[in-house]
Each structure stands twice: as C-alpha cells, then as structure tokens.
Amino acid sequence: MPLDNLIRTTLDNGLQVILRPSRRAPVASFWLFYRVGSRNETPGYTGISHWVEHMLFKGTERFPRGEFDKAVARAGGVFNGMTGQDWTVYFETFPAERIELALQVESDRMGNAIFDAEETESERTVILSEREGSENSYFYRLQEEVQAAAFQAHSYRNPVIGWQTDLLSMTRDDLYAHYRTFYTPNNAIAVVTGDFEPDAMAAQLARHFGALAPGPSVPPVRTQEPAQQAERRIILRGEDPTPYFLQAFHAPPATHPDFFATVVLDSVLGGAKGLGIFGGSANNRNNRLYRALVERQLTVDVASSVGPTIDTGLFTISATLAPGVTHAQVEEAIWHELERIQRDGVEQAEVERAIKQTKAQFVFSSESVTYEAYWLGFSEVVASLDWLNAWVEQLAAVTPEDVQRVAQKSFARHRQTVGWYVPEGEEE
C-alpha cells in the first residue's frame, strides 16, 4: 500500500493520529486501535480485554446503551469492535458529513465508560455462553489445546475469549482497572480515511480527544517464547464423528526478516490469503497440500495459516480427515511435502504465482476506505507504517532460496505441536 497523502501527528496526551484523505467516494471511516489484547493479559485475567471491549458498548452518560446504535442507523453508517491477540479496535464508517459522530462516541467511551455492576454480570453470562458455544466445535477445542501447548511461556497461549475459570472469577473492579490502564490516549491510534478536509479533521480530533488525560505507563510485555526443544502432542477425544488434524510451528513476527518468505511459503503450501481480518483466500487448487492430501483423498479439506503478530506467532496446518484414513497417514503425507521443499526447494514459477496471488489478496483486503483504515492502524500496532509501505516490495523480493531456507529453519519434528481429534471408539 503506497502511503501517499498521509498525515501523521500526536496529540499532547499521546494519542497517535493518522489521516489519509481521498475523494474516491463521499464516505469516511474512523478506526481507534488500542495497543491491548490477549498478549497483555496475565494469569487469572485471561479474556479481560475482550470483556472490556464488550463493556465499552454498554454506554456512557452522554450516550446511554442503545443510543449510539440508533444514531448510527439514522446516519446510514456501520460500526463494530473487535479484540485480537495484539489489539482492540472500534470502527465506524459513515457518509462523510456524519463522521464526527464517530469521534464523539469514541472519545466519550475512552474517558467515560460506566461499567455498571449489573451490566458487567449480564455480560459475564453472554461471554460464558459465547465460549460454551465455541466449545460445541471439537475443532475449536483442538485449536485451543494446540495453541496452549505450542506456547510454554508467552501469553499467546491463551484464547482471546479467555479461560472459563478466569471469566467466572474476574470482578467489575478488575475490568475497570484494565480499562483505565490500557484504554487511554497514550495507548491508542486514531485513523481517519476518506472524504474529509485534513485541517478540519485534525481540529475535530483535537477538540474531542485533546482534553482526555493520558493514562499510566502501560506495563510492558517482556516474555519471549523460548525455542521449542521437544515435540508436543495433543490427543482429544469426543462425540463428533469427524476426525481433525492440526499441526503448529513457531513463526516469525511481522518485523522479522523472514516474515515475508514465510508468507510465500504459506501460499505455496496452502494457497494465498489476504492476511487481514477482511482478507479472503485465492481458493486455488494448485497449492501443494491440496494436491498431496485432498486430491489423494486423504482429507476432505486442508489449510495452512500464518499472520502478522508482534511476537513469535504460529504457522499452522489443519485438515479434516477423509473416511477410513488415519491421522498418522495424514501427518506423514504433510511431512513428505514439507521435507520435499526442504530438500528440493520450490520452482521460480511457483514462487511467482504465490507472490502474485498473495499481492492480489492484499490489494483486495485494503481497497475500500474502511479496509484502508484498518491496515494503517493494524500495521502501526504490529510493526510500523514503513512496514506497510514496503509490503508489496518485500513480498516481491522473496526468492525460491528464501522459501527453502525458511522451510528448513521452521519445520522440524522436534519443533512441532500436533493435535489429533479422535472420535470416541476409533483407533488413533
């Protein structure tokens, strides 16, 4: 994404501001990223960021619960909020002349969220139900178990929604303290894209956010995941008759020199993806894992995945087994492909196709005013705007030798965490 026409500033209270005006359409999008997610959570408080995200929708004195929803509907806009491992974000996209409503609401809930005790307890029930709903999927359970096993030290081991025991024990005061620590101007990035006048928007941002007091110094995340020295295995059993397979390796963070080679490796193995929350996938059948597993009728589907993270993340390979096939057969078929790349490398044409398709997915995931704002804020959280500006260039620079080297470095049996979901009564 070439970062032309970009304006950056920081308010006196520490709020970072990124503006990118354009006249493509008479709409504007406002995103407010907080540098807090499950990465920042400690034992006993897992899921607290996701819960606080929910609570900020519960209203303020100025905008009681439900009032903002009605105002958005009247203004013809859309809004949402999300929590991830590295961030929490709220966004609104409006007809351009209504975008100040987003600034009014986000500045208000940054400083004045109520955290009503009854609403807190009601939301505890909602989140516990959300978690229990996810647990109805044995593939979700397998993912959670593998993730927890793949990280011994780092907080990426915890689910964003949190562990049930923590959700049952956290209090309203715990949530409010987390809010006052992390949901502050000096821990946030405001992004505005679309049809607006930069000077007028800067003045509006200063008016709505400038008077908010900065919060305390944010506790740093010092833990780094140590290199994995031993293979780890999970065997999960349950009532679902469909067997699943999941394999995970540590992957380099977004700012690591090997990150883009790892993205191309992912595309070679499992197809190109957009990487962002709005990104799709190429859904091509030329990738190596599809040919090795689905075409040979070992699995009914297969996917690989890697994403940009602040710290060491995960490269995963997942599959749903075909009837009559064992997990061991699937695992060995995958290792055959991984070791083939390690031994023989990949073709230049294969890498060029992977780069072209990944670039296309990236462009698709950043083409609208809303998607553009997401990428600007997200990149500043996990890496930097320079990283985003060089995204296509760094991707295009990946060579077959880079892909082979990263495969040799990343994939080893003692560095894998493997999960098998085995239906009750079936052999492993």
Number of domains: 2
In DSSP terms, counting alpha (H) and pi (I) runs of 4 or more, how many helices?
16
What is the average per-residue confidence, as pLDDT, rounded to a whole number?
95
Question: What CATH first level of the largest domain would be assigned?
Answer: Alpha Beta
CATH superfamily of the largest domain, called what? Metalloenzyme, LuxS/M16 peptidase-like
**Principal-axes shape call:** globular
Beta percentage is 15-25%
Order of the strands making up the biggest sheet: 1-2-6-3-5-4
Low-confidence spans: none
DSSP summary, beta strand count = 11
Which percent range fits the helix content? 40-55%
Helix/strand class: alpha+beta
SSE succession: EEEHHEEHHHHHEHEEHHEEHHHHHHE
Radius of gyration: 23 Å
CATH architecture classification of the largest domain? 2-Layer Sandwich
Straight-line distance between termini: 47 Å
Biggest pleated-sheet summary? 6 strands, mixed
